[in-house]
């Protein structure tokens, strides 16, 4: 049992409040996943600038910042708890290789728009550690985890990102993830953990690399991904939700003229503005719902 949430803002006036809205959603899902939590924030992209979300350990922030700036001269670095956001014009093919050479750094995600943060611990503490309330943006996805498929570690936490500006959160379990992992690795998709959700994220990355839309890829996944699941997936253009054809994992959507919100339970959305006037529905099994481009 995990908690998944997502919010897509139609009204740009709400962008400054994205972090506050997501904080309430994450806190209200804490009981569904007490082991770890994470979230992805999307903001308007800066032309020709990339952001790399990395987790650091066993070193101090000043030391690691100094080491990074020696290698990436134009880097702008934000320190948020045990994460760094490295912003640079340098292309991903070079930066990703550099990050791998740092023993105390672990890539969480990258892109022109996305920032990802995740930690082990009670979701309410994780949200507080990263000061989520202060974030702004266009849309966001979050997860509270009850560990079942892999260890309670940051690497085992959601969201998972295996491609530029992509991420996925998952409630459920996949039965064919080991075979899929081998297939995706042969196709050049990097999967670092033993978590089944990262395999699903890799499946989506592979579809997008093959010029399919997010919606088309999730539709294909209904026949290729065995198990039971509810996915919320994000790109810099929007987000989507799909439940498997049995749909034993819960989800509810609330849509108003200002936003679309998704959660495992309605209580996660009870604090949202004008939610009492929202169109509220349970996504049908085996159908993909998407918002944005």
CATH architectural type of the largest domain = 4-Layer Sandwich
- Mean pLDDT comes to 94
Whole-number tally of structural domains: 2
Oligomeric composition of the shown chains? single chain
Ranges where pLDDT stays below 50 over 5 or more residues in a row are none
> Which range best describes the helical content: under 10%, 10-25%, 25-40%, 40-55%, 55-70% or over 70%?
10-25%
* Main sheet makeup: 7 strands, antiparallel
**What is the overall silhouette?**
globular
**Strand fraction band?**
25-35%
- Per DSSP, the total helix count is 7
> SSE order in H/E notation?
EHEEHEEHEEHEEHHHEEEEEE
- C-alpha termini separation: 31 Å
Strands ordered across the widest β-sheet: 7-2-8-1-13-12-14
Give me the count of strands.
15
CATH fold naming of the largest domain = Glutamine Phosphoribosylpyrophosphate, subunit 1, domain 1
Tell me the name of the CATH homologous superfamily of the largest domain. Aminohydrolase, N-terminal nucleophile (Ntn) domain
What's the Cα radius of gyration? Answer: 18 Å
Briefly, what CATH class of the largest domain? Alpha Beta
Structural class: alpha+beta
Q: Can you characterise this structure?
A:
The protein has two domains: 3-43 and 121-292, 4-Layer Sandwich (Glutamine Phosphoribosylpyrophosphate, subunit 1, domain 1), CATH 3.60.20.10; 46-112, Alpha-Beta Plaits (2-Layer Sandwich), CATH 3.30.70.100. It has helices at residues 18-28, 61-71, 92-100, 123-129, 177-186, 196-209, 214-224; strands at residues 3-9, 36-42, 50-56, 76-80, 83-88, 105-111, 114-120, 139-145, 167-174, 227-235, 238-243, 252-255, 259-263, 279-281, 288-292. The protein has 293 residues and is of the alpha+beta class. It has a seven-stranded antiparallel β-sheet, with helices on one face. It has a four-stranded antiparallel β-sheet with strand order 4-5-3-6, with helices on one face. The chain has seven helices and 15 strands. The chain is globular and about 50 Å long.
